[in-house]
Amino acid sequence: MSVYDEEFFKLVSLLGDRPVEFPTLRPAHVAQWILESDRGLSDLARRFHNFGGMKYRSELAGIALPIAYEAHDGLDTYCAFPDNAAFLEGYFRFLDRSPYRGWRDHAASPEAFLSFIGPIWAGDPAYVTKVLGLLPEASDLLKNATTAGVDDAAPDPTPSVPGRPYIRLDGAQAVATGFDGLKISYKGDAGCPYGIVATQGRRPFTGIILHHTQPGKSAAWYVRYQIDGDSDRGGHFGYHFYIGEDGTVLQGAPLDKRTNHISSKADIRRSIGSHLRNSNAIGVSFVGAGFPSGSKPTPFQEAAAEVLVYALADHYEIPFDSVFGHGEIQRNRMASEGRDVAQRIRSW
Ligand SMILES: [Zn+2]
């Protein structure tokens, strides 16, 4: 039995829980990290969440910080990540750099992938053989990670896409419960009218809009604000879902109601997403991400949003290309509001 750092298990389950472009490659990634980080025990992994032994490159700006570090092959500048989610994002961005161009043409199997990237990733001629030998261990880890923590009392989970996050609604089609890597706390109030006109004219959900709120107030505060209503603005304003800075997902409004979160005024709407209204769009907000310099969700928020949007889109059969940032569809919002994550989701 090998010895692992506790954080390594968390990283593996994060990879197992989150939607990725090539799910069959998950064991290849984990096998690489087992070798590179010595099962999470390396100094780079423990101090900087760098499980890939990745040197810093400019494409990683905004995800990782450059740190000078003395590794076995000498002093160099390595990536320091704030957390596991940032490492995951950084790892995939690292692969999208020019030295690995074409790796998607080698994504049919872990073996094909590793044989292609291995010789570029490391100078060691035995690198590919070593990582290939770790694939069975990596697969076992992934299996254990994704079945851990499943509540036996929970209803029989039958996701429409096996192994992916999904939601179930209660009988009133109002309260969502998340499964397989998605946790949702319901904070809505059936007595609140929410968006009165939008709810009266409600249509099936056909899109999802990503928002941010200003820094300084908690998700719970915004949920309260929406339920209490704003007498100055004349109504109830807010979203169906609020994602806290630590990735916690709150459901602030029942899904049988509609909420006031976008404008339908033609003069401020753009052509992109023009089919969406409060009556047919789910609002998801990154709490506190609306900095004056632009919308900057934390890595936890981005990861949680991807999981939540995946599950909502799957449940309501909303196409991924009907997911937008508020700043993309409306002229009077900061252009960056919700944009980056929405663009990533549209490319799924
Ligand atoms: Zn907004």
Structure in words:
One of its GO terms (molecular function) is amidase activity. By secondary structure, this protein is an alpha/beta fold. The chain folds into two domains: 6-147, Lysozyme (Orthogonal Bundle); 166-346, 3-Layer(aba) Sandwich (Lysozyme-like). It contains twelve helices and twelve strands. Strands 5-8-7-9-6-12 form a six-stranded mixed sheet, with helices on both faces. A two-stranded antiparallel sheet has the order 1-2. Strands 3-4 form a two-stranded antiparallel ribbon. Strand 1 and strand 2 (74-80) form a beta hairpin. It is elongated. The protein binds zinc ion. Residues 211, 326, 333, 337 line the site of zinc ion.
SSE blueprint and pairings:
Layout: H1 6-17, H2 26-37, H3 43-48, E1 65-71, E2 74-80, H4 84-95, H5 110-121, H6 127-133, H7 135-147, E3 166-169, E4 176-179, E5 184-186, H8 196-200, E6 207-212, H9 219-228, E7 241-243, E8 249-251, E9 281-286, E10 290-291, E11 294-295, H10 299-316, E12 323-325, H11 326-329, H12 339-346
Parallel strand pairs: 5-8, 6-9, 6-12, 7-9
Antiparallel strand pairs: 1-2, 3-4, 7-8, 10-11
Helix pairs in contact: 1-7, 2-5, 2-6, 2-7, 5-6
The structure holds zinc ion.
Give the structure's gist in a few sentences:
Residues 194-338 form the N-acetylmuramoyl-L-alanine amidase domain. With 348 residues, this protein is of the alpha/beta class.
How much strand? Answer: 5-15%
CATH superfamily of the largest domain: Peptidoglycan recognition protein-like
> The CATH topology of the largest domain, please?
Lysozyme-like
* Spatial ordering of strands, largest sheet: 5-8-7-9-6-12
- Derived from helix and strand composition plus strand pairing, the structural class reads alpha/beta
Mean pLDDT: 91
CATH architecture of the largest domain: 3-Layer(aba) Sandwich
Compute the number of helices. 12
Main sheet: strands, sense, barrel:
6 strands, mixed
Order of helices and strands: HHHEEHHHHEEEHEHEEEEEHEHH
The set of bound ligands, ions and cofactors reads: zinc ion
Which regions contain 5 or more consecutive residues with pLDDT less than 50?
148-162
Helix content: 25-40%
Q: What characteristic shape results from the CA principal axes? A: elongated
GO biological process, one term: peptidoglycan catabolic process
Protein name: N-acetylmuramoyl-L-alanine amidase
Domain N-acetylmuramoyl-L-alanine amidase: 194-338
GO molecular function: amidase activity; N-acetylmuramoyl-L-alanine amidase activity
